[in-house]
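To whoever is on call:

I kicked off a structure prediction for a single chain this morning and the downstream step that reads the tokens threw a length-mismatch warning. I double-checked the sequence; it's 306 residues and nothing unusual in it as far as I can see. Pasting both halves so you can look.
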Amino acid sequence: MSSLSGDAATTQAVRPTAVATGGSVPRAGDRGARIRRTIAYVLIVGYALLMFVPFLWSVSTSFKTQAQSDELNLIPTPVSTLGYERAFTELDPGLPRLFLNSVVIATAATISNVVLGAMAGYAFARLRFPGREVLFILVLGTMMIPDQLRLVPIYQILRTFGLLKGPLQFVGVWLVLAISAASIFLFRQYFMSIPKALEEAAKIDGAGFFTTFARVVLPLATPAIAAVAILQFQGAWNGFFWPNVILQQRDNWTLPLGLSQFQDLYNTQWPPLMAVVVLATLPILVLYVFFQRYFVEGIAAAGVKG
């Protein structure tokens, strides 16, 4: 009896300790996972801050004077808005016109890439026709052809059709940027991750390919649409090569072309140049902030199934 009572007393003494510690002892594996996760977060945050330094330098330089622009300090002393004043007054054409031209080209290229890329991607993902895989490989192969190699034939075609004069120059730039292999690839990969049962149910109800695509598949492809829209808008917005070749009239210039006015052979006007860079970055930043979640989902889904 004394032995049993002693064991009961020991159990009662140990039980509060177990309850106080949560009823379980942390395992070494859990601690190791937390340490690895902490290290990963530290590295990711550090890398993000490192990538943010160039933009921070651009913002800082835009508020400096020309004499201070070569210094490496991130805090301008004194703060000067002369760079922004020059950005709005010295550009020809003016900054609003450059913004408008860039918006027109980037918006047109984005819409055409979303529409045409979605249709082509759905055809490659779902339709069965002879040579489909070979044609898809050829489409992807165009991504390896540099723009410089296509320069002469594209320029000759545009000149033949009179797309190098006046407002038609915008049409010429848009035709070059209207569709890309990357857009087709992203849509095709995303459509392949959508269950076929949804399309089969629509076909049982009498829907054809186009109705199934427009009313069933496309509404589910919001992440892919957002990803393609952000990538293509950013690419067209920052594009320099084709606008520089096709937009031969100064009034049709875009923002990247207008930036060159603050650079010459022997000198660079850094404060107004960085002021335009900061202003040109804002639309891309706003677009990404609003569609960030869909963008990440679309890029992630593109690698699910090949």
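Update from on-call: the warning came from a stale cache, not from the record. Cleared it. Sanity check on the structure: Residues 125 and 242 are 31 Å apart (CA to CA).
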